[in-house]
Amino acid sequence: MNDLHEDLEECAAFRSRFKIDHPELLMGSPYPEPKEWGSAEADFSWAFDYAHEEVRNRFLAIIEEALTNYDLDGVDLDFLRGPYYFKTGQREKGMPLLTDFMRKVRDAVSKVSKQKGKPLTLSVRVDPSFEACERAGLDVRTWIEEGLADLVTPMAHGRLDMNADVWEFVKVARAAGTCEIGGGIEGRTYGYGFLPDGDIGSNREPSIEILRAAAMGYYDQGAASLYLFNYYWGFAGQQSLEIQAKLQALKEIGNRQSIARKNKRYAVSIDNHPDLYGRAVSLLLQLPAPPFQRLGQQQRFTLWIGDDLDAARRHGVLEATRLRLTFGGFHTPEDAISVRLNGNIITPAPDPWRRSGILIHQAPVIRGMNEIVLELEKRAPNALRPLEIRGIEVLVNYYP
């Protein structure tokens, strides 16, 4: 529904003749935040400005043409690829315009469906929280309540974020009885490496354990399906472990029961691109968090675990649930962090895999939303910089 790639000079060839001839219909200047994505020198965005009726009518016509002239099963409106639709300061005013546009799309899809005598699905991909959607100018709550889409998939932009607020969307959809909610999986992570015990880094390929965890978490929150985006696996002939993991995941994650008792790696998502689409749009990325500045300071995090852990314990198939915390700022034995998990104070131990980390074996995590509260109790007197939290993850392991 919009795309910011054209703002980059290396993607100038993507700019259509229509856009070149009608700059008055574009976002233009000043550039919508964050500026770092586009050309700082040009300060100009080639994204469409949906405040113009001509823009909205153009997209409506494209949708009607595609559904009428081709034997499609439906149409998917991707509102996340370039998540800006109105100029800065105009999004609240423009929100009703996009809702009216969605009503017209709904009517068009229903009309063609009746003409062809077959059901046509209308799906939308949007930001991972209602608040983030509204900041982009999308009143998705109203879309769900009015039944303006058959499937709504809330997910983060650009990287896999298993902390998307799927449950909040599901509650609204169930109350309205209008549509289904999907869970979104991107082909790369925000900061967790491929191997289960790999280092924290940026732009990593997800392991099979991470893909299972994302899928199970969404299913447990009520997602009816999974939406894969940028789920590529390199060039033909490559046989890396990362590619094999993604191919294996396709055989597993479409069926909740097939992953129910397989190892998983749940993670609090890391925003390695705060100047691009991270905090400016998604709002849900909890890391990086502000560093600890004083003794007694607390930091709170949440993480949804989709596994039925109580049943697994009763059946004797659960090997361990481990909470792993990774720090920056030269974490030493002289530093002391208290960990409270779901109200329980637990004693951490040094992480044998990571020098700046701690590991809690048999952590009392629960199915559903988990709350993790960290408090700085003691700090090395010769610390060179504040202590910061780099990673939070829960490893759920089953017996073979």
Keywords:
400 residues; globular; 11 helices; 5-stranded parallel sheet; Jelly Rolls; alpha/beta; single chain
Descriptive overview:
By secondary structure, the protein is an alpha/beta fold. The protein has two domains: 179 residues; 101 residues, Jelly Rolls (Sandwich), CATH 2.60.120. It has eleven helices and 16 strands. The chain has a five-stranded parallel sheet with strand order 3-4-5-6-7. β13 and β14 form a beta hairpin. The protein starts with 16 loop residues before the first helix and ends with a strand. About 2% of the residues have low confidence.
Furnish the topology, listing elements before pairings.
Blueprint: H1 17-21, E1 26-28, E2 45-48, H2 53-69, E3 74-78, H3 91-116, E4 121-126, H4 130-135, H5 140-145, E5 151-154, H6 166-176, E6 180-186, H7 208-221, E7 225-229, H8 241-252, H9 256-259, E8 264-267, H10 278-282, E9 298-305, H11 309-314, E10 318-328, E11 336-341, E12 344-346, E13 349-350, E14 357-360, E15 368-378, E16 388-398
Parallel strand pairs: 3-4, 4-5, 5-6, 6-7
Antiparallel strand pairs: 1-2, 8-16, 9-15, 10-14, 10-16, 11-12, 11-15, 13-14
Helix pairs in contact: 2-3
Separation of termini? 46 Å
Order of H and E elements: HEEHEHEHHEHEHEHHEHEHEEEEEEE
Supply the helix-strand structural class: alpha/beta
Strand order of the largest sheet: 3-4-5-6-7
Mean pLDDT: 88
Number of helical segments with 4 or more residues: 11
Whole-angstrom Rg: 23 Å
What would a concise description of this structure say?
The protein has about 400 residues and is an alpha/beta fold.
